[in-house]
Amino acid sequence: KQYRIAVIPGDGIGKEVMPEGLRVLEAAAKKHGVSLHFDHFDFSSWDYYEKHGQMMPDDWKEKIGKHDAIYFGAVGWPAKIPDHVSLWGSLIKFRREFDQYVNLRPVRLMPGVPSPLAGRKPGDIDFWVVRENTEGEYSSVGGRMFPDTDREFVTQQTVMTRVGVDRILKFAFELAQSRPKKHLTSATKSNGISITMPYWDERVEAMAKKYPGVKWDKYHIDILTANFVLHPDWFDVVVGSNLFGDILSDLGPACTGTIGIAPSGNINPEGNFPSVFEPVHGSAPDIAGQGIANPIGAIWSGAMMLEHLGEKVAGKSIVDAIERTLAERTLRTKDLGGNADTTACGKAVAEMVD
Amino acid sequence: KQYRIAVIPGDGIGKEVMPEGLRVLEAAAKKHGVSLHFDHFDFSSWDYYEKHGQMMPDDWKEKIGKHDAIYFGAVGWPAKIPDHVSLWGSLIKFRREFDQYVNLRPVRLMPGVPSPLAGRKPGDIDFWVVRENTEGEYSSVGGRMFPDTDREFVTQQTVMTRVGVDRILKFAFELAQSRPKKHLTSATKSNGISITMPYWDERVEAMAKKYPGVKWDKYHIDILTANFVLHPDWFDVVVGSNLFGDILSDLGPACTGTIGIAPSGNINPEGNFPSVFEPVHGSAPDIAGQGIANPIGAIWSGAMMLEHLGEKVAGKSIVDAIERTLAERTLRTKDLGGNADTTACGKAVAEMVD
Ligand SMILES: CC(C)[C@H](C(=O)O)[C@@H](O)C(=O)O
Ligand SMILES: CC(C)[C@H](C(=O)O)[C@@H](O)C(=O)O
């Protein structure tokens, strides 16, 4: 079967790292007899917005909704376009309208990437953050009253649905069950956020009954962030609401040295819609155009995409190639103390794939 | 003037650390000619709840509402009493009903306390977290619909009032202005939480105009937690909503080695009601009764209380004594690699006060 991939480089360094991601995907596809077809799109970018006054064409769903996956660079350029236009007009739209209810991010300490945590070595930190990606704290329900007076107030609702909570928990428990440690940690704050978070806890407890082989625990988000720093070796699969997952999936990669190499998947597990794979880093206007961006986040996201498509061997070959590349100082980009530029680093990974 | 302090040890190790806190307060008071009068209360504890079926007497406000400050140990014992009864029946009640709208916590790397962050030394990390303590995400507005069906959902509102947001920002800007670096960082998430957080940002911008001498910046909470780990030296005063402040004031102390020694103040700056000073740690049922709890959190909270009362010299003398005590391995408790018990550590600090 041939996989059809929609490629959207977006803004800034998105445009620089994507060619390297594609280079490595092509190398892995060739080695492992996987057939990939790429369609390139220029929307979901500042350039497109400048020309058309909107982030995406009206028929964006027809254009990319039938692809097997979407391979995404980065979007946003705060100095030119407000976040709520660029992000809510593309990335968050994909998540909602393609029902990508899982945001999946590995937290893994890689060779060659020094951890800011004292004494942690590759192998010590290796877990997944599973984030609910469509509801929770990122709702659009709320408003403002008595504007510009002393009585002014704003409200915004957090919304958790049975369907929404149960399906993300199911995904997280399944993932935990598939791993050697079979350990799930739930992020809560039911001692302070007294309505939605106790509900989350209740659903975790109910779901846990269906997975007797999975050991599970829960921590309030405040002490959980502390434990990411103090005991990152405690975790295997960590599941959280939209906001808590967002926080943990930036903090986790920070504990492993750099969010510059972290990948992510915005996944619709049922395959009713395409899933989006993108590096965690943004468009980085400050270093865009210099050819120095680290392409590992994009490349690793490509590996996650292959695994999602069922091509696990090809996907793993990329992750292995990343590890071998990072282990060599000269093949790393500047941000990791190396002297390779974006292209040299991408080429190195492509050559390492086997 | 004589200060009247209400002393509430609460549960678990709260009862063990408070005598040491009092010992040190008495030593500092004597040295610096400060007159303190202590009234002891047994409510806000599991013991009291067991006898009376409620956490506090009906007339708790009359009993402690006229004191100059409340010196608090720890409350909660999840195995015996649910958090929403113990915490919402005492700690969170104080915050709301005594309008303690500031939660103030130092993040400081102390001598003798190894940081989990590689290569950080005392002096490298020294900032304050200022947390809104009465509204925001900790609201009681919301509910559940269609229970036990597939359509079930829960909602909970985040509520930010003009009064509530402006007064915490004012406190934070004033604090920043009083410090050598004059730098304020605001925690936001306006790119995802699209109604309340842009309002927070708007109020920060308005307040900043009144403090032209303060440099300020803002970070989304996800990358801000990452920066606590990667660049803790960037911060001077960090202000956040109830939830964001809660997270940052556990993560911050974790980055400085232990939340076991962190102090906090729940402050009503106008002095209309007493403020509560308490260690960040909880009642720690697992180590209660062994005499090994670290009393530094309680002692340091006592120092914050003196400073709040205007006795800055006496307060500082305690913080200095803590630093000198922690620098000696033998005077530290077990959790910090020493061999002193709770009392020995408390006595050491009391003797160091000058
Ligand atoms: C115990 C809990 C309700 C409380 C909070 O979240 O406010 C605690 O974490 C704190 O920071 O004082
Ligand atoms: C850009 C922003 C809206 C987004 C989020 O909060 O979801 C980002 O932080 C992410 O994690 O993908």
Topology (SSEs and partners):
The structure is a homodimer of 354-residue chains.
Chain A: E1 2-10, H1 14-32, E2 35-40, H2 46-52, H3 60-64, E3 69-74, H4 83-86, H5 91-97, E4 102-108, E5 126-132, E6 142-145, E7 153-161, H6 162-177, E8 183-188, H7 196-209, E9 215-220, H8 221-230, E10 237-240, H9 242-255, E11 263-267, E12 275-279, H10 296-308, H11 312-326, H12 342-352
Parallel strand pairs in A: 1-2, 1-3, 3-12, 5-10, 8-9, 8-10
Antiparallel strand pairs in A: 4-5, 4-11, 6-7, 11-12
Helix pairs in contact in A: 1-10, 1-11, 1-12, 6-7, 8-9, 10-11, 11-12
Protein name (chains A, B): D-malate dehydrogenase [decarboxylating]
Function (chains A, B): Has multiple catalytic activities. Apart from catalyzing the oxidation of (+)-tartrate to oxaloglycolate, also converts meso-tartrate to D-glycerate and catalyzes the oxidative decarboxylation of D-malate to pyruvate.
Pfam family, one (chains A, B): Iso_dh
